[in-house]
Fold this protein.
Amino acid sequence: MTQALKEDLVPPRIGAPAPPATNKVPGAHATGKRVGAIAIGAGLIVVILVQLLPFYVALTTALKAKADLSSQWLFPMVGLYWGNFVTAISDGNILQAIGNSAIVTLFSTALVCALGALAAYPLARRQTTLNRAVLLLIIGLIMIPPLSILVPLYSMLNQLHAINSYWGIILVMTTAQLPLSIFLYSSFMRSLPVAVEEAAVMDGANLFQLLFWVVFPMLKPVTATVIILTGVAIWNDFALSVYVLTDPAVKTIAPAIGAFFATQSSNLGAAAAASIMGFVPVLIAYLFLQRYFIRGMVAGAEK
Amino acid sequence: MTQATALASLSRRKSGKTGLRLRGGWRINLLYVPALLLFAVFTVYPLVSGIGFSFTDWDGYSPGRAFVALQNYLRLFQDATFRLVLLNTFIYGIGSTILQQVLGLALAVALDRPFRGRSAARAIIYLPVLVSPVIMGTMYYLLFQYNQGALNDLVVLFGGHRVAWLSDQATAVVIIVVVNSLQFVGISMIIYLAGLQSIPTTYYEAAMLDGAGAWQRFTGITIPLLQPAFATSIVLNLIGGLKLFDMIKVMTGGGPGYTTNSVSTLIGVTYFANQSAGYASAMGVVLFIIIAIFTLSLNALMNRRRLEQQ
């Protein structure tokens, strides 16, 4: 695992590397420093162990049969028991839920990128009073907590027969993630030089050619950020999905695990197995695309 | 974190028309019409009709509903359950925010100096951010569980009696705050790490030449220059904590009774289980107003401080 984790969480420090205080007088001061370093190291190890503990406990619980009452601290001694994963798949529909999540995340993320980039272009390049107001309004939408519009949204989706449909949840997820995408695309576009587009217009490019041949190819870095932020948010969504998707045939992973957990409170092993299967896809994506994950998050934070 | 940045730009205004001269003029604005249509149908219309529902006694399924003026809002003020849930919501929001800033900043400072295994440490601390809170909550539930939970095994090992961690209101609320903070502390850590990278090392060198100790350098240089990072991280954590939903649903289901609900989870229960859609709508309006007030006033505060410093 450590091999994939490169030193790219944060861009390199500006200026010279931090000088350690070696030019100071050694002696009492140096031992104080060493004690401090040991304390910091110990604290870090504690935090890391605490962060790993729930994953470890889930693993030991998932790999033991229900009759095995040994402590969660202990790894199964008598051999690994896979029955809990079988239960999670057969009773909890976890594999189907992963498939549903893949469908919903794929289509929603594609829509968020496409509609976001299109919408951002006039907002970035034609900054009239109207367009500045539109952008502010869109950014303001980020503030609306999803649950605050649960009642009207649910009753509207119900009238549209969109409950338990892919298209319903895809449109809801797309709308929820679109404001952030428009903000990211428009700030990125504003940082691009206008000269390239002006040259294309001078050469007689129409709007379609300008967008697809000139502007969109320049958007790859910000698109990676949008895909990661949107993809993770939609894959993990529970607050709206749990109400919009109630049929096991269309349930995505978070509501599926929530429902399975609620019915399996006496069968903790199966609940643990379902949880592990639910985050493995994200874990794999994180390991392979870690560079992009962190860069995307940092890029957002630094704006 | 980008959400907070986006929100921060709400109050930032630039003047003067800039940009590209395009043929077609205003017609280029048609490009944002599809997005606006989605917002109109799935956000603005529900928001407005939700305000409408909040003035009725609608039960959520029957076609009829009567106008009851402000009755739902008056009921909110008299409802002891709602008062407790409102208090919980503030505890979830403010408690998580404080915990995440303290721990996130400490981790960022500790992980700023290079050492072996640093990137692995950062990656592990950040990992839970990417896991669905439903899954984190399920795994933490196993840990706090009464009969087989790892924590109670420790308690017994040291001669204590098993504790029903999640059956007591106060304990459960604290546990949810801690667990939510641990899950998302990676976000604050990354924001502060990025902030620390942007502080030129020459400042520290100059301070060391002047004989400033480590603590003095921290309070005199690091803290003031991290101001933008504080703003981003605090706004983001506060919004996340105030609308907390998933973790509560999985860890306690809002129980015992209604006592660990947040406004978000109570809206779902009021709408579906209690079939009081009008009352639930009023809660939704209140939740929206709370988050709007917090976000806008924090933004205003941060922007004023930024202006004063310039």
In short: Residues 113 and 193 of chain B are 10 Å apart (CA to CA). Residues 11-19 of chain B have pLDDT under 50 and may be disordered.
